[in-house]
Write a structure and sequence with these properties.
The protein has helices spanning about 1-5, 15-25, 115-120, 135-140, 170-180, 200-210, 255-270, 285-290, 315-330, and strands spanning about 30-35, 40-45, 55-60, 65-70, 75-80, 95, 100-105, 130, 150, 155-160, 160-165, 190-195, 215-225, 245, 295-305, 310-315. The protein is of the alpha+beta class. It is globular. The model has no long low-confidence stretch (mean pLDDT about 95).
C-alpha cells in the first residue's frame, strides 16, 4: 500500500489521485465525506461511543512545483509548491502536467559558472525545466502554465530494512490511517485526510472546525539528520529509534499530558520511542490546536532522512513500531 501511495502524484491543490485511492480503500469500512477544499473526513464506528471526540490526521499532499512560464527556447519556468531546497533539485528527472511530460530540472553548466556562483547553490530563478522542446510553440503543445510538476522517483527497498521514495511525507501517515479504519477499534474515531498541508496547513484548518475534536493525533514524517559527523542534539531524531513524539515545533506547543502518556505507553510495552531534539518545522497540529473549542494535540512522526526531496529514506521497523504505539495509545486517549 505504501508503494502505491508514494508512486501517486498529488501535490498541494492537486490531491485527486491520492484522494481517489484512499476512498477506494476505506469506502467499505466507514462513512466519509469530502469537504469543499478536498479533504476526506472519515467516521469509523468502534465498539463504544465515547464522550470525547478524537481525530487522527495525516495530509495527502506532497511538495512539488508549478509551471509559471515558457521561454522562447521552450524551457519551463517554475516555482515551488511547498518547502523545497534548490540543492535537491539540480538535474532531477520530473514529470509535468496531466500528459506526464518528462523533463529535467536544468542548471547552468559548471564550466560557465563564475567563482562566486560556484560557491553558492542556485536559487529557483536560475533554474529551468528542459522537456526537450525546441521552441515555445513546441512546449505549449504539451504543457500549460499552471501545470503541476513532480519528482520522478522509484520506490526502492534498500540496505537492512530501509525504504527510499518520494512523498513518504506523508503517505506513511495516510497508510497508517487506512489500516486503522480497516481494523476493529474500541471507540468511534474520526479520520481526517487533509489537503494542502505543505502550503500553510490549509486543509486541516477546515476539517478541524468541522470535527471540533477534543483530542487530535497528527501522523507525520519529520527530519532526521543522523548522518556521519553529526552528533548529539543536531541529529534531531534517528532512524531505527522508533516513532518521534514532539514537544514543540514552529507551529505548535504540544500537550504535555499527551506527550508524557505516549512515552509511558511506549515504555510499558517495550516500544522504542524518541523525541525531536530541535524546535523546527511544523504540521497540521498547528491549525487543529486552535480550531473550534481548541484541541489537545500530539504529533507522532516517522524519522525521515532527506525529507522534501525525490529520495527520502525511512526504516521499516520505525513504521512497525508506530503501528504498535498507535494500537496501545489510542484507547487511552478517551480516558
Amino acid at each position: 500500500m505504501l508503494k502505491a501511495l508514494c508512486q501517486l502524484n498529488s501535490t498541494s491543490g492537486d490531491e485527486n489521485a491520492v484522494r481517489d485511492f484512499i476512498i477506494s480503500e476505506i469506502k467499505d469500512y466507514c462513512k466519509y465525506e469530502v469537504d469543499n477544499l478536498g479533504s476526506v473526513i472519515a467516521y469509523k464506528k468502534g465498539k463504544k461511543t465515547p464522550e470525547k471526540t478524537v481525530s487522527i490526521n495525516a495530509h495527502m499532499d506532497e511538495v512539488g512545483f508549478i509551471v509559471t512560464g515558457i521561454t522562447e527556447d521552450g524551457y519551463l519556468r517554475f516555482s515551488t509548491v511547498g518547502g523545497i531546497d534548490s540543492r535537491v533539485c539540480l538535474d532531477r528527472l520530473v514529470t509535468v502536467g496531466r500528459n506526464n511530460v518528462s523533463g529535467v530540472i536544468a542548471d547552468k553548466a559548471f564550466h560557465l559558472l563564475s567563482a562566486d556562483e560556484k560557491s553558492k547553490c542556485p536559487d529557483f530563478d536560475g533554474l529551468l525545466i528542459d522537456i526537450g522542446a525546441g521552441s515555445k510553440e513546441q512546449a505549449e503543445n504539451v504543457v500549460n502554465v499552471g501545470d503541476f510538476v513532480y519528482f520522478v522517483s522509484d520506490y526502492v527497498e534498500l540496505g537492512n530494512g530501509f525504504i527510499k521514495s518520494k512523498a513518504l511525507d506523508d503517505r506513511i501517515g495516510c497508510m497508517l490511517m487506512i489500516e486503522l479504519i480497516k481494523s476493529d477499534l474500541e471507540y468511534d474515531t474520526v479520520f481526517c485526510f487533509n489537503v494542502q498541508e505543505e502550503v500553510g496547513l490549509r486543509g486541516s484548518k477546515c476539517t478541524a472546525h468541522r470535527v471540533n475534536a477534543d483530542v487530535a493525533v497528527v501522523l507525520e514524517a519529520t527530519t532526521a539528520a543522523d548522518l556521519c559527523g553529526v552528533t548529539g542534539c543536531d541529529r534531531v531524531c534517528v532512524l531505527g529509534n522508533g516513532p518521534v513524539v514532539s514537544f514543540m515545533d514552529r507551529s505548535t506547543i504540544y500537550d504535555r499530558g499527551l506527550f508524557d502518556l505516549a512515552f509511558s505507553v511506549a515504555n510499558d510495552n517495550g516500544i522504542p520511542i524518541q523525541t525531536k531534539t530541535a524546535v523546527a518545522g511544523g504540521n497540521d497540529a498547528g491549525a487543529i490546536q486552535t480550531a473550534g473549542n481548541g484541541a489537545r494535540v500530539i504529533a507522532i512522526s516517522l524519522p525521515c532522512r532527506y525529507i522534501h526531496s525525490a529520495n527520502s529514506v525511512v526504516k521499516m521497523e520505525d513504521i512497525e513500531n508506530t503501528r504498535k504505539l498507535l494500537k496501545e495509545l489510542l484507547p487511552k486517549l478517551y480516558d
